[in-house]
């Protein structure tokens, strides 16, 4: 794992993928033993997720979106036609959602079944206000969980939104910048 502020992890039904020191991608088994490891020579990893649709991990760096095959340990660049500073990402069964670094973070939606074809861009104020940044992005059961930090009020919240309309289902104030993960069918755990 990284010695810095945060590390990225992703999981499928067989492996835990971790970013080790921004230099290696490591696959761990259920007992947390390293099964395989490969060098990682791209920019630092901001986020990772698993897509059962393409049977690959998706790795988000500042300028690249990569797929990682756990069986072959092969990394491939995704053909996403945008020159953005990527930050966080998550997958539904059909789509990849990517947020960018910066205030008023937009979210881009791509189709996983058609080689990352662009679907839609969601912008402020739908995603968040211009004085806010999306700190994380996670999908579960047709919902997106989005921890959001507001610079003017110096406070954070986590929004749960519909993944198809971005309608806010609920919003809860939280302490500090955070990430999140789903822990059960309809439960979310914010983490500092």
Q: What's this entry about, in short?
A:
With 192 residues, the protein is an all-beta fold. The protein contains no helices and 19 strands. 0% of the residues lie in helices and 54% in strands.
Descriptive notes:
- A hairpin with a 3-residue loop joins β6 and β7.
- Strands 13, 14, 15, 16 and 17 form a 5-stranded antiparallel sheet that branches. A 4-stranded antiparallel sheet has the order 1-2-3-4, with no helix packed on it.
- The protein is globular, with a radius of gyration of 16 Å.
- It has a domain of 113 residues: Thrombin, subunit H (Beta Barrel), CATH 2.40.10.
- The protein starts with 8 loop residues before the first strand and ends with a strand.
- The model has no long low-confidence stretch (mean pLDDT 90).
- 0% of the residues lie in helices and 54% in strands.
- It is mainly beta and 192 residues long.
N-to-C span:
16 Å
Number of DSSP helical runs: 0
The CATH topology of one domain is what? Thrombin, subunit H
What is the element string, with H for helices and E for strands? EEEEEEEEEEEEEEEEEEE
The 3D shape can be described as globular
The overall strand count is: 19
User: Level of helix content?
Assistant: under 10%
User: How big a fraction of the residues is strand?
Assistant: over 45%
Spans with pLDDT under 50 lasting ≥5 residues?
none
């Amino acid at each position: 794992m990284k010695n810095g502020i945060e590390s990225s992890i992703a999981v499928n039904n067989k492996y835990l993928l971790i970013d080790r020191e921004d230099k290696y991608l490591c696959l761990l088994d259920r007992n947390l033993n390293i099964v395989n490891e490969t060098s990682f020579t791209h920019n630092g990893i901001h986020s990772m997720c698993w897509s059962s649709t393409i049977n690959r991990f998706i790795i988000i760096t500042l300028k690249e979106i990569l797929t990682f095959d756990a069986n072959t340990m092969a990394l491939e660049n995704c053909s996403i036609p945008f020159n953005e500073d990527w930050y966080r990402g998550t997958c539904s069964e059909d789509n990849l959602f990517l947020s960018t670094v910066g205030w008023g973070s937009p979210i881009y939606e791509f189709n996983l079944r058609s080689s990352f074809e662009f679907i839609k861009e969601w912008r402020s104020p739908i995603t968040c206000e211009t004085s806010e940044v999306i700190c994380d992005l996670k999908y579960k059961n047709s919902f997106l969980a989005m921890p959001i930090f507001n610079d003017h009020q110096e406070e954070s919240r986590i929004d749960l939104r519909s993944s198809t309309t971005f309608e806010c289902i609920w919003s809860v104030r939280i302490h500090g910048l955070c990430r999140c993960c789903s822990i059960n069918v309809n439960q979310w755990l914010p983490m500092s």
